[in-house]
Every structure is written in C-alpha cells, then in structure tokens.
Design a protein that fits this description.
Layout: H1 2-28, H2 34-84, H3 102-114, E1 116-123, H4 130-138, H5 144-147, E2 162-170, E3 173-181, H6 196-214, E4 229-234, H7 243-252, E5 258-262, H8 270-286, H9 301-313, E6 316-317, E7 324-327, E8 330-337, E9 340-343, H10 352-362, H11 364-402, H12 405-414
Parallel strand pairs: 1-3, 1-4, 4-5, 5-6
Antiparallel strand pairs: 2-3, 7-8, 8-9
Helix pairs in contact: 1-2, 10-11
C-alpha cells in the first residue's frame, strides 16, 4: 500500500511538471500558433498520462493476482473437502419408500433362475470314507461309487481323477454340484509325486477358464470347472501328519482351498481326538501349510470371530454315514455299534455339522470368491507374464532373422 501511494504521488508530480512546461511554452509562443501547438502538447501529455495509468493498473492487477492464489487454493481445498464428505441417510430420514431393498430380491430371483456351480474335490487313501462323507454332506447319492452301477472296488495302478456332476434343487434353488474323486492316492508303497496328477488337474481347470476369458467373443456365462474346495482326509492314527500329508498340503495349499478332516473319528476317544488335533495344528504351523480359512483374508470383524472358531476346530473330526436310525422316536443319520448309535449331526459325537456349515451354509460363496480372486488370479498373472516373456523372445528372434544374424547362427549350428 505504501509503494502504491508513493507511485501515485510521483505520477501527480509528473503531471504538475507537464502542466508547468505547457504554460511556459505557451507564453513564449506567438498568438497564431499557440493554440495549435498547445493542443498537440496537451494530446501528447494526455497519452503519456494514460500509459502511466495503464502501467499502474497492470501493476496493481499483478499485486492482486499475487494475493489471489492463496484464496483460490483455499477455495479449491474447501471444495475437495466437501467432495470427500459423505452423509449417511437412514430410513427414518427419507420422505417415503424408494425400493432399494428390492435389489436383494432381484439378485435372489436371478440366482434362482440361473443357478450356481460348486466343485468339490475329495483326496485321501482308499477306505477312509470319502464317498460316504460326500453323500452325507448333500444327503443324496452323489459320489462316484454310489452313482456307478455294478461298481467294483479295484486298486488303480496310477492316480486317476474322476468327476461326477449332479444338479441339486432345494426350495427352488438349483446348484450344479461336481464331485472330483482321486482313486489311487496314497495306496502304494512308493507314493512319490502322487500329488502331481492332482496339481495338473487343478491348473488345467484354471487354464480352461483363462482361455474362455481371453476369447474375443466370450460366452455370456463362462463354464466354471475350477476346484472351489479340496477336502483332505487324514487317517485317525492319533500321531502326527505323515510326510505325504505334509507334501500334498504344501503343494496344493497355494492353488486351492484345503479343508483337512480326520476320517472315521469314532475310532478315537475324545481325549485322543483332542491331542491328535493339537498335534496336527502344530505340524501345520511348523511347515507353513495354508488351510482354509486364512487369517489375512478376514475383512470383517464378525467374519474374523467366526473364522477364528473354525480355525480352532480344524481339522474337523467327522463321521459319515447315509443310513438313518430311530433315536428317541426320531430318525437321525448315524452309525449303529454294539454300545450305541453315533449320531452324525450331533456335535457331542462328531464335528460333521461344523464341516457342513462351513462348506455349504456359511462359506460356500466365500470359497468360490477365494478361488476366483486369489488362486485363479495368481495363476492368471503367472500365465500372462510367461506369455509376455515368450512374446518378447519371439520378437527378438524375428528381429535377428530380419537382420541376417539368424542365418549366421544356423550355419554355426550346422557346423
């Protein structure tokens, strides 16, 4: 402000000096030319004064602009802060019914019409009750042995994988269930690399889905044959994990969700069962084996509490049967022995109900999401990186051939 005041005083002084010059020149001039020359001088003086005023206005404008950015930044910051603010409007604040809750009904109706898919794999030695447990889970004949007429148990020479698909409908909801059985796993004296066919099968299903996804004309709904869950059966030895168990779960834990179970848990007492489960949990932690559900994927506090309970009870001590018996006037699934009936769905007898709740009632969709968002995404990234590397190497080889160096390498190789 002081600088601008000094500039104004300087301009006024210059204007007074100019007027004095005009008066001095006007007195010395002749009367005839005094009017014309005075007009010219006045015009020149006015133009000089106008230019000085313009310069003064420009300088003041620059002064204002230098002070203005701070306010602009503040305004922009205020606007950005306002854009980040989000208000929560509850139902009591609305003027009337909108119908947002109908989205859930729309999703439910669409799912009921199209249905969904669930693929489960059972792995373990022969005689551990894999087929019986699958039949008990879905309360129907869905295993390979049950749906194959005139089935005869034969020991296969190699590990083979057989898949059987069924469409199960309950209260209007359709589910295409695919059960993948692995006969021959762990049935030999030398079980080296017996997990390789299973790893190959899992990766092949990822590859099929990736090919369908990369097609130019993709299907509206890609068939999903990926393994969503693998139930691994541990024999009720009462000791620790065997080397084959450790190797299998190490190699499969990174590509598929594994749920370990203790098969035929009725052969152990309650104390033996608790000690065996504690040893297995120690072996899993020592060997860095990943089993479902994983802690790093617990997003919600309520889910974390539920998953902590599940992790505390893993591996599930289960008993499977597809026969019903009368207990206190009610039909229950159970195994009849000399000392009583083991109720499969009774938590005091075994943990089959906990396993069923995990696989079907609480975590079925989460198993599918983990398969798609984690295991499949990991495979997809690896495959795309490999294809990019192969493409870059192919481009380098074609460049060498185009420059004539490829012929030189071929001649050297013939020599």
């Amino acid at each position: 402000m002081e600088e601008s005041h000094e500039r104004e005083e300087g301009i006024m002084g210059q204007e007074k000096e100019g007027i004095g010059k005009i008066q001095g020149q006007a007195g010395s001039m002749n009367t005839e030319n005094s009017m014309t020359e005075r007009g010219k001088i006045c015009n020149e003086l006015h133009t000089e004064m106008d230019e000085k005023r313009r310069e003064k206005g420009m300088e003041e404008g620059q002064m204002k602009k230098e002070n203005e950015p701070k306010t602009d930044v503040q305004v922009e910051l205020c606007q950005s802060e306002q854009s980040l603010q989000m208000s929560f409007i509850s139902g009591s604040d609305l003027f009337g019914y909108i119908g947002i809750e109908a989205v859930l009904d729309q999703m439910r109706n669409k799912t009921m019409k199209t249905g969904f898919e669930f693929n489960i794999m059972v792995v373990g030695q022969s005689g551990l009750g894999k087929s019986t447990l699958v039949n008990t889970l879905f309360k129907s004949k869905v295993s390979r042995k049950s749906c194959t007429p005139n089935y005869e148990e034969q020991i296969s020479k190699t590990v083979k994988l057989h898949s059987v698909s069924h469409v199960i409908e309950e209260k209007g909801v359709k589910m295409k269930l695919t059960v993948i059985d692995t006969p021959g796993f762990g049935d030999y004296i030398n079980n080296d690399h017996c997990w390789e066919p299973i790893v190959k099968y899992v990766n092949e299903q990822y590859e099929k889905y990736l090919i369908e996804e990369l097609n130019v004309n993709r299907k509206r709904r890609i068939p999903d044959s990926r393994v969503h869950c693998c139930i691994y059966f541990l024999p009720a030895t009462g000791h620790r994990l065997r080397p084959i168990d450790v190797e299998f779960m190490k190699r499969l834990g990174n590509i598929v969700s594994i749920v370990p179970v203790i098969a035929k848990a009725d052969t152990l007492t309650i104390e033996e069962r608790l000690d065996f489960k504690e040893r297995i949990r120690q072996d899993l932690t020592t060997n860095g084996i990943c089993v479902y559900p994983l802690k790093e994927y617990d997003a919600d506090p309520e889910e974390r509490i539920l998953n902590d309970r599940i992790r505390d009870s893993i591996p599930f001590a289960v008993v499977g049967t597809d026969k019903e018996h009368q207990v206190n006037g009610k039909k229950v699934l159970g195994r009849k022995t000399k000392w009583g009936i083991i109720e499969v769905e009774n938590v005091a007898h075994c943990e089959f109900s906990n396993l069923r709740d995990l696989l079907i009632r609480s975590h079925l969709q989460d198993l599918k999401d983990v398969t798609h968002n984690i295991h499949y995404e990991t495979y997809r990234v690896q495959r795309l990186n490999q294809s990019n590397m192969a493409f870059s190497e192919l481009g380098l080889s074609t460049w060498l051939l185009g420059n004539g160096t490829g012929e030189k390498f071929e001649s050297e190789s013939h020599l």
